[in-house]
């Protein structure tokens, strides 16, 4: 049947002019689709084999080429290592530390430019999409620095005889299933990640980028994002969670949102370990100038700074520690400089910045049967030269911390810590100053830990300067205050509470407690030189706090000597009272005898 709309000659000519080329192009496309798909398949296999120096092989079940769309699709891609070559390189000390296995259900190449490839020898792809890739990585520390294979050419030098350049605008790995096996420790550590996405921008391999150090593996930027990651520590005592993580190679920045470290319930935790119980929550963490490539290859963590914003750290002293035998270990391992010495990690962070971190230390007192809590609210500051790297420690063996906080959410506290990273006795020092606050605000700690309740008084200033090591803490403590009045407490086990020692409190306030420091205007304030010998089972936080407490007690008249004097006065008072009662009874008896004699005389 004739086409009715082709009535005029010019319409027929136009139709033939359009139809014939389109038909020819369509036929050519069909032919090329059949011919080029196997060629691309061969190219993919060769690219993986050449790029990995024969370590990896790639294969797939099917490939489709849609020339007119500029689209290539591969199905069921598998990239696996050649274990024979890997083991051979291990013997030659040339094997990589990371070994990778990859499976992709579907790989799509969008907007491929085949004419550029065949006529200009440039591979140009706008977009590559990998759907549901399964990535398995195993890590073994085969070497600690870059090794050079016989073929030490760059990627561009390897492909330059066939291709002038490779350019891919975007690569997306969606919904990655990632399993990581780490064989470098004492036992195998396995991590499994889900809800992970990876995007790559501007991958370019040519004569210029082969030496471009601003690119990461020839890419302008690689971004890794991880959502809702959680896990459990090997000992089963802690659960950890990350709400969101992002790593950018362009900015060399690692961002973490919603980091949490949650311990097991108290009874379970303390029955399984002698360690202190720690809870950590940080809203925002940022690691700057993070050398990811160095970490990926050798597990060496180098960064210029770490920023921690808005969070809390809670430390609970283990109440079972007093029961453990001394030969079970020294709690000096909890000192920060000893933790650095004992860790297997290799890290160097120039500066750690804290902002608005609430710190809480809780300790159970066996005498009072109560838990006292010390709070440091809105803590901010910086740690300098945080490193476990031996070469870095040789250059500078001191880690410094400058901190600012609010003690019991009231008095402004500034403190500086200096940790010696090489001293065999874990030497360090701490000094600082605490501003004005109402003295009764420390009752949350003093009632349980010292069995003393502050009834009234105001602290003007508290200064301390302590030199310490694993054996002994020594230094000066100065507490300036006014109108101090206290109540001494004792444990009432029948009612599970602390009970006021009325008589002792009266005597303490009348004869022992020093109401003011200085005692009068113009008088030099009292200072205390404290020497506190650390019990072997006393951890870092507890020893720091106890040393200051030992300096405060004599400053206000609550040291052991003053307590003995108080007890002696009370004993003397009781003895005098008893003697008075005896004399009173004797006088009463004498009066009754005289009365009886008079009645008998009548």
From TrEMBL:
Annotated region described as Disordered, given as residue ranges: 311-332, 560-602
Domain of life: Bacteria
Assigned keywords, A-Z: Membrane, Transmembrane, Transmembrane helix
TM annotation in the entry: 12-32
Bias (Polar residues) ranges: 311-320
Compositional bias segments (type: Basic and acidic residues): 560-584, 593-602
Protein name stated in the entry: DUF748 domain-containing protein
Organism: Mucilaginibacter dorajii
């Amino acid at each position: 049947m004739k086409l009715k709309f082709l009535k005029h000659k010019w319409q027929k000519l136009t139709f033939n002019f359009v139809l014939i080329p389109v038909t020819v192009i369509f036929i050519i496309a069909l032919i090329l689709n059949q011919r080029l798909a196997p060629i691309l398949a061969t190219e993919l296999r060769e690219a993986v084999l050449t790029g990995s120096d024969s370590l990896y092989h790639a294969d797939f079940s099917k490939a489709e080429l849609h020339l007119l769309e500029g689209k290539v699709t591969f199905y069921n891609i598998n990239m696996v290592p050649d274990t024979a070559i890997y083991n051979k390189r291990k013997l030659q000390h040339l094997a990589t530390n990371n070994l990778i296995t990859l499976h992709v259900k579907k790989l799509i190449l969008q907007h491929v430019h085949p004419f550029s490839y065949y006529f200009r020898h440039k591979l140009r792809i706008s977009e590559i999409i990998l759907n549901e890739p399964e990535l398995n990585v195993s890590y073994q520390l085969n070497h600690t620095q870059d090794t050079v294979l016989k073929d030490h050419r760059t990627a561009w030098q390897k492909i330059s005889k066939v291709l002038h350049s490779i350019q891919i605008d975007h690569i997306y790995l969606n919904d990655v299933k990632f399993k990581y096996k780490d064989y470098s420790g004492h036992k195998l550590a396995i991590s499994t990640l889900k809800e992970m996405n990876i995007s790559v921008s501007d991958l370019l391999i040519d004569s210029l980028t082969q030496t471009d150090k601003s690119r990461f593996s020839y890419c302008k930027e690689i971004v890794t994002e991880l959502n809702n990651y959680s896990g459990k520590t090997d000992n089963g005592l802690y659960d950890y969670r990350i709400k969101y993580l992002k790593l950018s190679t362009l900015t060399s920045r690692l961002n973490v949102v919603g980091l949490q470290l949650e311990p097991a319930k108290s009874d379970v935790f303390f029955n399984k370990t002698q360690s202190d119980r720690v809870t950590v929550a940080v809203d925002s963490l940022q690691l700057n100038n993070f050398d990811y490539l160095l970490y990926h290859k050798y597990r060496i963590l180098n960064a210029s700074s770490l920023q921690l914003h808005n969070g809390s750290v809670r430390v609970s002293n283990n109440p079972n520690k007093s029961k453990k035998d001394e030969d079970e270990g020294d709690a000096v391992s909890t000192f920060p400089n000893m933790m650095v010495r004992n860790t297997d990690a290799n890290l160097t962070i120039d500066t750690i910045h804290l902002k608005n971190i609430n710190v809480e230390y809780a300790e159970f007192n066996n005498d009072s049967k109560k838990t006292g809590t010390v709070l440091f609210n809105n803590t901010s500051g910086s740690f300098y030269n945080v490193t476990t790297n031996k070469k870095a420690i040789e250059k500078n063996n001191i880690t410094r911390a400058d901190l600012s906080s609010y003690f019991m959410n009231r008095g402004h506290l500034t403190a500086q810590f200096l940790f010696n990273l090489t001293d065999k006795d874990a030497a360090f020092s701490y000094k600082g100053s605490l501003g004005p606050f109402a003295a009764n605000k420390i009752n949350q700690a003093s009632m349980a830990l010292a069995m003393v309740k502050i009834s009234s008084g105001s602290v003007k200033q508290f200064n301390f300067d302590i030199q310490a090591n694993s054996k002994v803490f020594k230094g000066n403590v100065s507490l300036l205050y006014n109108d101090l009045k206290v109540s001494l407490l004792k444990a009432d086990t029948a009612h599970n509470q602390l009970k006021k020692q009325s008589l002792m409190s009266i005597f303490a306030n009348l004869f022992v407690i020093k109401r003011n420091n200085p005692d009068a205007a113009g008088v030099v304030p009292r200072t205390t030189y404290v020497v506190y010998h650390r019990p072997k089972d006393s951890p870092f936080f507890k020893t720091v706090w106890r040393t200051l407490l030992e300096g405060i007690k004599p400053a206000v008249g609550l040291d052991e000597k003053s307590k003995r004097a108080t007890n002696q006065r009370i004993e003397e008072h009781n003895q005098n009272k008893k003697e008075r009662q005896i004399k009173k009874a004797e006088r009463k008896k004498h009066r009754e005898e005289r009365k009886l004699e008079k009645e008998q005389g009548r």
